[in-house]
Structures are given as C-alpha cells and as structure tokens.
Amino acid sequence: MRFLIVVAARKGSERLPNKHFLRVAGTPEYPVRVCDYAVRAAKKAYAALADTQWMISSNDVRFCQEEPNNLVLRPNRLCTAKASIHLALKHALQSWEADFEGPQFDAVISLQANVVTVTSDIVLAAADRLEKDRKATAVMTVKKAECPPEWMFRWRRFLQRESRTWRFRMQDLYERYVPTGTCCAVRREVLLGCKSNAAFAWLGDRIMPVVESGPTIEIHDNGDLEMARGFLNRPIFA
Question: I want to staple 185 with a disulfide (CB 3.0 to 4.6 A). Which of 92, 106, 109, 158 is the partner?
Fold first, then answer.
C-alpha cells in the first residue's frame, strides 16, 4: 500500500496560542518543540515504508521556512476549532496529488501535531494493521479503560440509534477502550467517498484498534504543557 502521512497542525489555538512552536524539552538555545515529535515520527515512518510520502497540513506559514517541500497550506475555513478533520485530510490528499505527479495513495495516516508522545512505531503499527486486514476501513489508536467514562455509554446508544445496520466494527470496544486520536489511518475510497463529517462516521464501517501501551500526552493548555515538560525531562535511572 502507498500511504500519505499527514501531520495536522492548524494555527489558531485559543487556549494556548502558538502551541506547536512552544518548547517542551531541550534548552532555549536548542529547543524541542511540541510539533517536533509528530514531525519526527512522520519522517521516520516515511523512511521505513516504501512508496510513502509525508506532509504537514497547516495554515501557519512558519512551517514554510522549515519544511517548504512538505507543506500544504490549509484554507482558514478548515482551521477553525469546529472544522472537521475529515475535510482537512481530504484537502491534504487532493492538494498533494494535484501538485505532485505519481500514483495515487491507497490510504492516509493522520498525526496530531500537539501529541508529544507519538512515535514512528505507532504509525508503522497502524499502517501494518490496515495493510494486513483488507476488510478494515480504518485504524485508530486507543487506550485501555479500566473504568469506562459515561460518554462511552452515551456514544454506544447514539450509534445504536443512528446505525440501522449496526456495522461498526468497534461496537464492542467502547466500554473497554478510549480513542486517543494520536494516529488514525483511513483508506482512500472511504475518506473521499464519505458524505458525513460526524465523528467516526467518515472512518467507515469497520474500524480496527491499535492499543497504545505508553502514556498519551496531548497539548491543549498550559497545564498539559507543564505535564509534558515534567514527563519528557524526567531523569532516567538505570
């Protein structure tokens, strides 16, 4: 399969302005920023997967200076807090293929630039899962939940009410797993053919899980940033 790895990094966070370029590790002279983890994971996965490309989807022109050959500028209408990631990924895929000649991609792998615990291993696991299970329409990273939150049960009832065929492959997972959003892989025909922007609906009717074993740290506000700094700069003992 040919994968397009997309690092989603929209500008305009209200809770933590310019969060993608804030230092989370390293030193002021040599900072490791929030976005560096997802970009590094995308580059390493790109090097390990044949016939694959990686790119950044953003409306932040600062990425033009660092990754001019791997940036697709996303229109502002797709960069609001309520904008659908489905439409953003669809725009990224169509824009990249319009600008660069070559065979079409079979699937898109999405990474969130504000997740500092993402690794290339997660990306490769999602790609492997989607490639080996030909019936799977999408793969999503999840975490085990010992005590399921209330929203899981509400979401299950919503799917039962909305889906007359009850085809969702993850219907038996909602009470045991929490989707993390760290990594998501979806087949081309599903991404381009879906008419709905509702959560999970655009991922198709057979969503397979990849269980994350380590922590998941997603940066939304200063509290998340300080937690990440403490975790990523913690001392390592033999």
Answer: 109
